[in-house]
Amino acid sequence: MPLKLSKILFFFLFIFTPLAFGTTEPWSYAIMEIVTALALLFFFIFVLKNKNELYQVPGITPLCIFLFYILFQLIPLPPFVIEFLSPDIFKIHQTTHLITGTDSWMRLTVCPKATLSEFFRYSTYVMFYILTIQLLSKKEMLQATVFAITIFGGLLAFSSILQFYLTDDMALWFRHVPNNALVTGPYVNHNHYAGLMEMIFPIIFGLFFFYRPRIGKTTLLKGILEILSQEKANIHILIGTSALLVIVSIFVSLSRGAMISTCLSLILFTLFLLQRKISRGNTILVIAVIILSALSIGWFGWDQIFDRFAKLKNSQGIIYETRLDFWKDTKDIISHYKVTGSGIGTYSHIYPLHRSVISDLFLTHAHNDYLELLATGGLIAFLLAASFLITLFFKTYMVFSKRRDAFSIYLYMGSITALVSILLHSFTDFNMHIGANGLWFFFVAGIAVSAANTGIREQSRQTRLLPIASTAKKFSFGFIICVITIFTILFNLSNLSGILYYSNIKDSSMSADTPVEMIQKIEKIARFASLVDPFRADYQFTRANTAWFQNETEKSKNHFIASLNLAPLNSRHLNRFATFLARQDDFPRAEIAFKKSMIYDQSNPEYTFQYAVWLFAKKEIEQGLGFMKKVLALDEKFIDRALTAMIVSGIASEKITQAIPDKPGPSIAFAQFLYDTGEIQAAIDRYIGSLDLIENQKFKSFQDQQNQMRIARSHFFKVYRFFQKHNDLKNAMHTMERAEKALPMDAQIKVVFGDLYYEQDILYKALEKYKHALLIDPINKKALKMIKKINQ
């Protein structure tokens, strides 16, 4: 019974995890982690009960050390130890101690909750890897698993292709996803769907070669008839269809990294065939598969694939990828935390501190698994991961090179090719941080071990893996599994309980007008959430705010300190605590907290704005104006708040000019402010000066040309409408002339310029502009309407 349960859970896991939208949410992670632990526990119970063999697992030593290393990052250590191991981590914690006025031991991670979550995720992968090797040590189970992969992969690919063309924003046919997502199958991100499929395809491909019908030299027609008459022809056709569907779905997903990785994996598979000197007919079969795949993909259309690669070029025609900026910043993180990293799983926490690109994107991963591992785990974690891969490839290949049965050979070639494919893709994406794909990587690794070692022929031994002879080792292994299972269940239940309970107040906001009963309700929920999940900083932060609103100053302070100890780089928490300290007249510590909240998230202008307002309150006007200028350079939308803050602080318009950056948005807004305050000529001069800024505006590399034109047009129209509104036709004409010169291919500019001429009754010029607009946009309704009106 325990073995049967273990097998059922095993099949459930590798099918469920991709279908659970890739396993990226707390509920799906909880199911994956708990079920994996239980499956391995049931298998171990079977081993003890029936005194079965437990086999050695290739690469288990570096994997276990890796898990212990993650735990080591969570252990509080004396400050001098942290300073020795990671000086930059020490500085972060030391700053937190300075702000909070506390003195305690430090961790090697900047977010214990994130690192603890990663420990359980990687523990799950290791347990599933062990379970795969143990279960697939029997040929029947190995063959059943491979056939299950074939059927699952083919059905998922077929469904995903249909879904891709028949729905726009639905994952797995029923779940709506964000509008900016390129959903494929059950995955919100098409790259991660393709990552799964590029691991499935080589395995099915290997099986396809194993079942290839053997025919003698004959005519084409007789050969086809001979193939169809063979006993295994239907299986071969079924497997081939599945393989074709999988590879077509990879290209249909439009994942550039997966397309390249899949093509390289085909080359690797072919090299394996040549190295083993297997039948020449296989080379012809590879070519046939490539041609058939190309024709099938062509049926869906190569144009969109070419367009996808064309997007690598920016508006200047230069090959550019946003990932390059992410990688540059990640290299900066690595340079600061070389040996131990910032803490496994903390990339989203450490990245804002080193971010150089200003955008609305919230980056959770580096889009390069290797760089992210170096950034968060340091050289230690990277070497451990490399040791596992080297051990896996070396040990399995040594056994594989001696194998003679075709099933094992083709399956090993397919599984190793699958691993190489996803490892190549990992240079441009973060598949290893997607729950299902990470599990499948270790699943495929287990298949590779089993393909190399499991006996297929009747007379061969069950497996070439060495059994664990020591009873003490078996019991130690069982004890560790029991402990991990218990803690996995406790961790996930506490995590889900906290999230579920806290979701009732997650979006609630508090102010001086919030009823006391509501604040007490929020405090009660936050208290329960923090009790069941003491590692999440948000719960402590909410409790700090509720206590503050109830004038419980000391209690509020303690909860603020607790939240910062759990998340020392959280700028939102720091900024709020800085305000709290300022209200308590603790100005020195408030100053540090305000500064650090700004530094720890340099791309968020809110914290720089708060610091500038703080400086105004302290009458440090010149310094405050400098930071306010930085705010407006980061985000033009802050102009109204910035002007209000400066007016309230009693700063004269002559001084305010110092805070206006050389950007069209803030300059135009300031011009309107000058007009509203009665400085008419200064406003006109500022509006005209803004035209130079519009023409010379520099855009970010990731902004496409269409977006650049839209922004520039919007600025020109704001200046134009000001002059038009105040009947200043001379400057209105001057503005539109410069707009037309700057954006000669913009139909809207032509139409508005035509309207201006029409208002002045210069009809021939108006007609000329409308006709120019139609040359650019033949279906422009306004231009067609006005031409018809003039010609009547």
Write out key terms for the chains shown:
two-stranded antiparallel ribbon; 2 strands; 792 residues; mainly alpha
How many helices? The count is 35
Which class best fits the helix and strand makeup? mainly alpha
Strand content: under 5%
Overall, the morphology is globular
**Estimated helix fraction:** over 70%
Give the strand tally. Answer: 2
Write the topology of this structure.
Blueprint: H1 2-19, H2 26-50, H3 60-74, H4 79-85, H5 87-100, H6 112-135, H7 139-166, E1 170-171, E2 175-176, H8 190-210, H9 220-229, H10 233-252, H11 256-275, H12 281-300, H13 303-310, H14 322-336, H15 347-354, H16 369-400, H17 406-425, H18 435-453, H19 471-502, H20 516-532, H21 537-549, H22 553-566, H23 571-583, H24 587-600, H25 605-617, H26 621-634, H27 639-648, H28 653-656, H29 664-676, H30 680-695, H31 705-725, H32 729-742, H33 747-759, H34 763-776, H35 781-791
Antiparallel strand pairs: 1-2
Helix pairs in contact: 1-2, 2-6, 2-19, 3-6, 3-16, 4-5, 5-22, 5-24, 6-18, 7-8, 7-10, 8-10, 8-11, 8-17, 8-18, 10-12, 11-17, 14-16, 16-18, 17-18, 19-20, 20-21, 21-22, 22-23, 23-24, 24-25, 25-26, 29-30, 30-31, 31-32, 32-33, 33-34, 34-35
